[in-house]
């Protein structure tokens, strides 16, 4: 207790502690907000994802307390693995939400395109892309590209989550990546995060 008191009396240590506890508070607030989402799938995915983020930040804070020497009775590897698990679960659930939103967006694009092609078919000079979409995979990728192109916040959120998940997958030994790939993923994720901060309209909204 004396060590903790001395530590919190130091400005730098106190600020770092409150910054980490602030992450926990923000994750709890995000959980409360996601509970009120109108669509069932995003509500479940985001609520569970945010709950896992809360646990992840708690684990991260415990690891930090251990790293600064406030206590020595903490199993570092155990808590690091636990933190990686919850971070991975959070990102997987966020990606499920992204995939759900992508599927809805693809349905909208398909529906809108069908209306345009139906209208164009009445014109003898109308153009159809049926020939260029003969292959299923090509057709799917083209539709995916058009869907994400029309919804930049969804593209940004998906890319960020895919980049973020590389690190916990590597830590847990599920999918090994070299440090260069993980570093690049972290850089792309950071850029995506800065874009959403600079341009709030680029943040994927919860419906």
TrEMBL record:
Coiled coil start-end: none
Membrane-traversing stretches: 180-199
Primary location class: membrane
Keyword flag Transmembrane helix: yes
Localization, UniProt: Peroxisome membrane
GO molecular function, one term: protein homodimerization activity
InterPro entries in the cross-refs: PEX11 (IPR008733)
Keyword Transmembrane set for record: yes
GO BP terms: brown fat cell differentiation; peroxisome fission; regulation of peroxisome size; signal transduction
Highest taxon of the lineage: Eukaryota
A GO-annotated cellular component: protein-containing complex
Pfam families xrefs: PEX11 (PF05648)
Keywords annotated in UniProt: Membrane, Peroxisome, Peroxisome biogenesis, Transmembrane, Transmembrane helix
The name this protein goes by in its record: Peroxisomal biosis factor 11 alpha
Originating species: Rhinopithecus bieti (Black snub-nosed monkey)
